[in-house]
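Subject: design request, 490 residues
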């Protein structure tokens, strides 16, 4: 494994985004919630612009709006004023509070601020959930996962397991105390055992979330999806502006997560002990089934088998038929893409999932790169297939590192988000785009998890490879519009 920038050189065009952005995405999937960033105004402005560029939906993010004096003497007053303004204007059911680099650096005691805060008279007090998201400690995907953990710690209440002794009422006490939650006492009522499961899919597209809900309905398996931004970030047109978009995971469902039959969590590189599923397993005794993103055929087979076991039902016929059509599509495209060399970059879990999917077609991922530094990406790749053991793995990479390594490895195909567009043009290699894809409308509606959604990928990859080899055709050369017409560039 190569640890990029390990010589102290500066980062150039980082292959990651900031941790508070991931927190904003996670909180956006909770019904009636709004995000408050404790820090300077620029943080919320940047994140709001970035999310709007990708999702093409209105996004409101509040800020405590640090001034010079707050940066020196602390942001307690700014924090209290910001909460008052948000409650008066939005009337939220929950406020997700994410710290930024500035508030973390000066050491603001946000937990103490929350305990001392009193809402404006006559207005209902929302749930306050705090997560620490200093960007110098992680990536946007880590901010997303840490936010899910904070929500579960603050809201999930322990239940009574089937055939077991009652769960202790102190099960979620640790998270409640850390987040300043008002229910942090031994009087928290226990929930009866439920017939539902928890599904924590990680950072996927709104289209993928809709597919997962449809899949669970086909198995007749009730589930709490955290976090569900399929409507809040990919909804329909409004006749009137909505301060908080409808949709998201309901707070009452979040409280029932501690009494679920099981938790299914998609993550192969995040620290296992830090996940929301790990908290539910340790404190609420909810069995945890952890797996990577089900993007390859074999991984999706494992996911379908798990759902069949949890629901007691066979895999529905329509999904079996979609699998057969996908296998046929793979066979059709195999002769065009076999042994072609690919570079994959992005979030670590996504890179592992894409590598699993591409390797099943005969494409060889020779370079897998991410801005994250979990140290688990190589192990996750090797667990997928023996042929991935020889892949070059770069952690903590920026796009300058990736471009140099890709040129040395003579790759045929670039797979990743739209931030790598310029790199692909300089390498003179076609690129399959993925999230975030800011320049192209409709990105939230693109799914990768369903078998049906993967079928168009392989003909596109085959066309992509054919276009790159037919250099005599002007419409297939970079800069002539041939790639864009085929949907291979932003």
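Subject: RE: design request

Done. Sequence follows.
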């Amino acid at each position: 494994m190569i640890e990029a920038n390990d010589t102290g050189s500066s980062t150039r065009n980082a292959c990651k985004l900031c941790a508070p952005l991931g927190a904003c995405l996670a909180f956006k999937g909770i019904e009636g919630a709004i995000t408050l960033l404790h820090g300077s105004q620029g943080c919320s402005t940047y994140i709001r612009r970035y999310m709007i560029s990708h999702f093409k939906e209105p996004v409101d993010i509040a800020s405590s709006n640090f001034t010079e004096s707050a940066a020196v003497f602390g942001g307690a007053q700014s924090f209290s004023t910001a909460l008052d303004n948000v409650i008066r204007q939005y009337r939220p059911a929950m406020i997700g509070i994410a710290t930024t680099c500035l508030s973390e650096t000066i050491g603001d005691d946000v937990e103490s601020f929350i305990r001392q805060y009193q809402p404006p008279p006559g207005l209902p007090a929302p749930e306050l959930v705090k997560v620490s998201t200093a960007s110098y400690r992680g990536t946007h995907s880590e901010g997303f996962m840490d936010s899910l953990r904070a929500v579960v710690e603050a809201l999930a209440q322990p239940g009574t397991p089937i055939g077991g002794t009652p769960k202790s009422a102190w099960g979620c006490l640790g998270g409640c105390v850390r987040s300043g939650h008002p229910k942090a006492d031994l009087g928290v009522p226990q929930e009866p055992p439920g017939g539902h499961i928890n599904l924590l899919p990680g950072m996927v597209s709104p289209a993928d979330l809709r597919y997962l809900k449809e899949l669970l309905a086909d198995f007749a398996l009730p589930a709490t999806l955290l976090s569900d931004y399929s409507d809040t970030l990919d909804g329909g047109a409004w006749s009137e502006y909505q301060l908080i978009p409808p949709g998201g995971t309901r707070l009452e469902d979040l409280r029932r997560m501690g009494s679920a039959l099981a938790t299914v969590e998609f993550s192969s590189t995040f620290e296992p002990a830090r996940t929301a599923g790990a908290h539910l397993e340790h404190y609420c005794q909810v069995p945890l089934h952890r797996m990577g993103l089900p993007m390859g055929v074999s991984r999706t087979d494992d996911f379908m088998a798990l759902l069949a076991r949890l629901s007691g039902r066979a895999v529905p016929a329509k999904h079996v038929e979609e699998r057969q059509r996908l296998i046929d599509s793979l066979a059709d495209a195999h002769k065009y893409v076999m042994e072609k060399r690919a570079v994959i970059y992005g979030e670590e879990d996504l890179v592992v999932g894409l590598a699993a999917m591409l390797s099943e077609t005969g494409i060889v991922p020779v370079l897998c790169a991410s801005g994250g530094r979990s140290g688990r990406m190589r192990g996750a790749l090797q667990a997928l297939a023996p042929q991935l053991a020889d892949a070059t793995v770069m952690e903590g990479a920026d796009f300058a590192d990736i471009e140099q390594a890709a040129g040395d490895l003579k790759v045929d195909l670039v797979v990743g988000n739209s931030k790598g567009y310029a790199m692909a043009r300089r390498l003179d290699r076609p690129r399959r785009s993925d999230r975030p894809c800011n320049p192209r409308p409709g990105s939230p509606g693109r799914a990768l998890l369903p078998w049906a959604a993967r079928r168009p990928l392989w003909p596109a990859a085959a066309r992509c490879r054919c276009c790159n080899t037919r250099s005599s055709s002007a419409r297939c050369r970079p800069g002539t519009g041939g790639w864009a017409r085929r949907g291979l560039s932003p």
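Residues 161-193, 469-490 have pLDDT under 50 and may be disordered.
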